[in-house]
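Input for the complex:
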Amino acid sequence: MASFGMIKDFQVKTNRTFLDRAAALEPVLHKKTIAAGGIVTVHNIMTDGRQETVVRPFADLSQLADMRFQRGDKVIFDFGDHQVGYVSFQAVPTGSHYDAPAYIRLTFAEAANELLEDSDAYDGWLSKSWIQEEVLHLDLLPDTVKLPRRYAFRYMQIEVLDTSPKYALKFCDISCESVSAVEMEQVKPLCFGDERYDNIDRISVKTLKDCMQKVFEDGVKRDRRLWLGDLRLQARANYVTFQNYDMVKRCLYLFAGMTFADGRIGACFFHEPEFCVDDTYLMDYALLFGPVLWDYYEATGDADTLRELYPQAMSQIDICMDTMLDENYVVIDQGDAFWCFLDWGKGLNKQAGAQAVLLYAMRYGICLAKAMGDSSRMRQLQDQTETLKQAAVEAFWDERLQMFVSGSERQVSWASQVWMILAHVFDRDKSRELILHTRQVNPEVRMVTPYMYHHYLDALIWCGEKELALEEMDRYWGGMIKAGADTFWEVYNPDNRYESPYGSTLVNSYCHAWSCTPTYLLRRFYKDGKYDDARS
Amino acid sequence: MASFGMIKDFQVKTNRTFLDRAAALEPVLHKKTIAAGGIVTVHNIMTDGRQETVVRPFADLSQLADMRFQRGDKVIFDFGDHQVGYVSFQAVPTGSHYDAPAYIRLTFAEAANELLEDSDAYDGWLSKSWIQEEVLHLDLLPDTVKLPRRYAFRYMQIEVLDTSPKYALKFCDISCESVSAVEMEQVKPLCFGDERYDNIDRISVKTLKDCMQKVFEDGVKRDRRLWLGDLRLQARANYVTFQNYDMVKRCLYLFAGMTFADGRIGACFFHEPEFCVDDTYLMDYALLFGPVLWDYYEATGDADTLRELYPQAMSQIDICMDTMLDENYVVIDQGDAFWCFLDWGKGLNKQAGAQAVLLYAMRYGICLAKAMGDSSRMRQLQDQTETLKQAAVEAFWDERLQMFVSGSERQVSWASQVWMILAHVFDRDKSRELILHTRQVNPEVRMVTPYMYHHYLDALIWCGEKELALEEMDRYWGGMIKAGADTFWEVYNPDNRYESPYGSTLVNSYCHAWSCTPTYLLRRFYKDGKYDDARS
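Predicted:
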């Protein structure tokens, strides 16, 4: 199912001052040259009836000098860890004087399985252009190939499509100038007392770091854009690690600097070639602008930014109250349209979840109003919250099932329960009962993305199930590590390693920032056992 | 059959002075911006049981502004004539803000049929890298795409491999900066009194012009190198047209400036990235260095160059006399090795032809020695000529067949007859009988390339069959025009439009300088009917 929004004759409202603030905060990227570490082979094998991709060492990099490549020969370089950057290498002819250009195909893979898939056969709905392949002619040899495009990868394959019968190619000096707005050394490793969580934390921080570029990118292989829902999680992880407050501020001003003409904040923002809001509105993402602003204010005490952006945060709630509710204060279901995100996954009904996110945003709205001294607005929101909570229970709570349902077909999903808990529709005890009951029932409409799993863990922690949250973190994020993750993924289904929302894992993103939150949860809620109510 | 020479541990001898002279003569290329002329479609149709590629107008270029391209869409631009140069165009997104790179494949075709062939299926022995295709990602849009590689083409296809569901591409400002060391305007069109020959002359001149770049290139799509056998014909056509004497001089000094360590002149020379002789020796090509030098001296009177290069011209003959002959003064057959060119085509035995080229070179050697006042050498060559002619007749003339044979299997080919005539083994009358007899018998081992056809016409003219030569020129070169040639081709078999010596027409070259000689023959031998004996 293709999921995207698109608006004909899209009109925007620009606040030049805000965009200028964002522009002034553009980070200077750190650059680090990383050499390829070794030469490997990649194979699919069957283990217990399941296909698995394995990477095997093939040769030491010192042996590369003796290797010759002609038509059809391939070599895979392993950079040892996930890289985001600009690749260069030397291609040197050997044999007779080269009498034809060299013709090579480069393939970059975050996960080794990408190397074994047939990109020509790709027929998913996401653009093929995201597949990290290049076909190059080298007319003058020897050549120092410096690729102008940025890639996200651990493995780089060079396939020689052809030289000529008279010469072969050698390769040397394979390296990547890796880039990020931050450096791993800025963050002190976690000492959790359990290696599993230290590893999960380390990989979370690496995932976040790789996605911190000119903005918080959602994924560095694909999409490479600033999404509001992702920003919220990245910012939270950033506060307990790199503490790059300017990048959050920049992103807040971007979203506020160009909105839909009616004031709605877009779900996603382009920063290249010039600033531009995408014509995609997602109700939950727009509502999360307020929580992002609150988190930022809480982390920095930057009252100027709070004051400037407060009106827009509040208006996202107002717009939803005015346009998205029926006469019973229940969010109107918009079915299969791309109107509210919550999670990928087939057939998830968003109605109940959207109501919950609205309530969640209103709680943060109250915090914002309080900080602004806007007591009338605070009271108004408090009243509205009660109304909407009641409406939520009436519309979605199924007494027989003891779970929330969503949509006209009364769908029971994990997402609806989790978000209703995070919305504090019930108190902590009843919420705890609900999440434990949900685990027992295990509704068929499951969670797919780390984005949704984060909210599940957040809900467990709020309910006081911190041990269980740790177990689930190990099962899910630890499961990715066992499956070979160097950075955390966009999509992970423990039951189906090769799940993709796009019709092909070739375009899955394997360093996706919305999966970086274990570092936030571990560092925020576990160090001294303290739990801050307002935060979840 | 793959045909190429290759020498392990190849050693060269360099004359720095000569290479410096060549470097100083590097031409400055003329540049001319040519806009695409129209939009066409290309189809294969069956006509009288033969496949034919037809080009049909599809749209006016002014309609391009209304065209939108997404995944799988293609457009073919017709530049109206053969171009050699650097292409640029604008790619502009339309629809929502582009949310993925644009991904396009460009295909350049000298002949329209190249657009219908499957380059992935190419399995010929020449490098795939010559196929004029590029696959590009455009990360920032709109983009002015300036392709850094030079292409030879009339048709340019853009295939959009993907945009995204949210946007399409538009294209505009499709143009080519065409380059050459010379300009068509420098040459006065021929007025032969018969449009057929005016056309053949014009296309000959265009072919030559397009191949005059930093050196005389053999073909501008593929190979793009200086070959000695080709140089001889290009230089002759150049003397009656552009009269760019410096380019001939530059090429002579290149060949003389770096030779095999034993003094043999290479068949081919690389001028990029630095000067380097190829490790290919072709006996006939090396021997033709003398005739090229003589033609140059005759055209320019440049006695300094003659004096400097005379020793190397003569030594090519000496080397052959010393190393390539058996005790009966007959060239030793080297079978299927790539040792003597004469023509492409399967199974042509080169022994008789090589003997003839040696005799041909000796005749020019006598001219050179005479001009140098080297009378002892002149007499020696005259004596050797008689000996070798006698040996040629004894070894190769078949009295019963009344034709020359070649090799241990006594092969009868067109090439052997033509070169024996050009070698003046027989006098003009007997040569005329031979060529007419050959036409009647039509030996199975035919001529394939315009290079060989040129020598056939040259032989006809020398035999006094100037009308017949014109008829054959019209049949062969006129035939290419009827088949759609904008410039003359590397290979043309009137009986098989799709013949290729490389296993696929995809790598055939459709602007190949060795086919430019009709302008030489028409302007040299037909204007006033004069025929210069020494020249053929």
